[in-house]
Amino acid sequence: MSRPDKALLSDTQLSQVDAPDPLSKRQLQCDYLIIGSGAAGLLAASRLAQHGSVILVNKGRFQDSSTWNAQGGIAGVVSDKDSIESHVQDTLAAGVGLCHEDVVRTTIKHSSDMIDELIALGTRFDEADGSLHLTKEGGHSSRRVAHVQDATGRAIGEALLSQVAPHANITRLEQHTAIDLITTKLDQHNRCLGAYVLNPHGEVLSIAARQTILATGGIGKVYLYTSNPHAATGDGIAMAWRAGCSVMNLEFIQFHPTCLFHRQGSNMLISEAMRGEGAHIVDAQGRRFLFDYDQRGELAARDIVARAIDHEMKKQGVDCMYLDARSMAKTLIDDHFPNICSRLLDLGLDIMQQPIPVVPAAHYSCGGIQTDVHGKTDLEGLYAIGETACTGLHGANRLASNSLLECLVMADYCATEVLKQPIPAPCHVPAWDDSGIVPETERIQIKQNWDEIRATMSHYVGIVRSDERLRRARRRLRIVQEEIASYYWKHPLSQDLLELRNIALMADLIVQSAQQRKESRGLHYSTDYPQRSAKVADTIIRPGS
Ligand code: FAD
Ligand code: SIN
User: Fold this and answer.
1) How far is the CA of 150 from the centre of ligand 2 (A)?
2) Which CATH topology does 30-67+160-252+364-420 take?
3) Helix (H, G, I), strand (E, B) or coil at 270
4) pTM of the prediction?
5) Is the pLDDT of residue 389 over 60?
6) Which ligand 1 atom minimizes the distance to the CA of 273?
């Protein structure tokens, strides 16, 4: 094997490394390394840049994050008719007994401050009668979702980017993909020293940092059908796992009930806010069936709606259900959903004239790297924030529009926590060693492995699971992982290969987590254990356990 596992450097290896050549463009240093520039990474960068140098790494463009694509809005307590207690109770109910109540309370208490801050940064939330227009989504007992039409994420992203882009202390590395964390054992304990990053020219940079923050978003690309952008391959969780961090609750994959079912628009989301404002889910005969499953109908929590749609599709033997918005006023659609409407029109679908074909698709990971609300991981010098982290806020099912809120609150707390840390002694990180790597002759193995993983996860580890399906998935994933490992160590790195290695690991961790949960709760439904267990426990997996 020619390429050592750089994420697990030993003391001996470190002591053999020379000081970095300051002129070397492949060895960079900063106070704070932030990987990922969605809402979580951008806010953390702007906070920390007031106190030191920041390198902000992003494997795509800013527009490629989930943040940028967020539609419905950000949940928060900003109306006199609402209360923190009501938002807390809705979040706990959606999470089906598994939310960490202290984290829920801390996060929600901070919600109105975060929304005020976004407004101060220039986010122009929709207004009605002189105050914020608040929309409603599934599982919320009040209107409490602030939004910018149906493109809230882009507006929030632009506001945060306006703080980051001009900042002299922030170096932005776009089209750069983090490969692995660099860690070592100092004084008997492991510490994160930075990360290796692949630049667009195929070269590997080593970035040494006093503190490293993972803000790499979700894992939707593990599935065939997802609302997520291409970047959502679970890289941060995979890197943290390889560096020795525990992961939590990865079995809870949220499927959004209404993704467009269309050959040319397969990952297009149709916001839940449309249902909040009056659109219905119907079958091909126009029958509203959700009240057969929950008295809240279209506005039941997302796990219930997605499972009901999946069940009806299977029962009726059809490929999709429909979102019918024809009863909504045209002015309401024009004012609040102009982007969704125009994207559908581009595909030849007129939402005012016809029901829109929809299917549930992988949307959000409630699990992730185990952290506290400040983003602290098991590994000294490493933090994880936003969707890549798991604080226990969402429990077994995330309440709609709670994740942008989580990203901002965690980034804020994390920056404060990072600044409290003592400055570690400088430590040199070695350059990447690519000796012995042989050129690729063909890429078909990579494509085949991508397809196999995503199909296996969609067919066996989707909305409804069973012991047998999980066993089959695990067996197949083991073979694919072996193939990827042998390919990875011999061939030049590419973003595609790095992502493949990560989705394979993520798929395996999701299956392992699902196998550990012997009950049905929230987003995890097993035909072998259809009941909820009296025992309420997180699923925590530790590397090597
Ligand atoms: P992201 O915004 O996903 O950003 C992750 C960043 O990490 C990206 O910049 C990516 O390029 C980068 N990255 C990943 N891997 C690497 C790597 N190896 N190296 C370098 N960079 C890397 N939530 C709500 O609360 N309200 C909504 O209305 C809402 N609507 C949504 C609509 C859609 C279509 C989707 C997909 C999600 C929606 N969500 C919504 C969920 C929410 O948008 C996300 O959970 C949240 O934006 C995640 O933010 P983040 O900062 O953690 O990660
Ligand atoms: C949506 O607009 O339906 C997405 C909201 C969310 O995922 O929180």
Assistant:
1) 10
2) FAD/NAD(P)-binding domain (3.50.50)
3) coil
4) 0.95
5) yes
6) 28
Q: pLDDT digit string (tens) for 455-508?
A: 999 999 999 999 999 999 999 999 999 999 999 989 999 999 999 999 999 999
pLDDT, one tens digit per residue, over 62-112 is 889 999 999 999 999 999 999 999 999 999 999 999 999 999 999 999 999
Amino acid present at 236: G
- Between CA 545 and CA 543 the distance in angstroms is 6
Mean of per-residue pLDDT scores for the chain: 93
Q: Parallel, antiparallel, or unpaired for β 134-135 and 54-58?
A: unpaired
302 is catalytic: yes
CATH topology (fold) of 444-528? Methane Monooxygenase Hydroxylase; Chain G, domain 1 (1.20.58)
**Does residue 411 contact residue 47 with C-beta atoms inside 8 Å?**
yes
* Ligand 2 pocket, CB under 6 A: 71-72, 271-273, 364, 400-401, 403
d(CA 361, CA 37) in angstroms, rounded, equals 24
Residue 17 has pLDDT above 60, yes or no: no
Cα separation, 14 vs 352, in Å, equals 64
Closest CA to 146 of 65, 78, 67: 78
User: What are the tokens at 543?
Assistant: 């590397």
The CA 417 to ligand 2 mean position distance, Å, reads 29
Residue the block writes with tokens 């070592």: 184
Domain ranges of the chain: 30-67+160-252+364-420, 72-157, 254-360, 444-528
Strand pairing class (27-35; 54-58): parallel
CB burial of 406-432 (b: ≥16 within 10 Å; e: otherwise) equals bbbbbbbbbbebbeeeeeeeebbbbbb
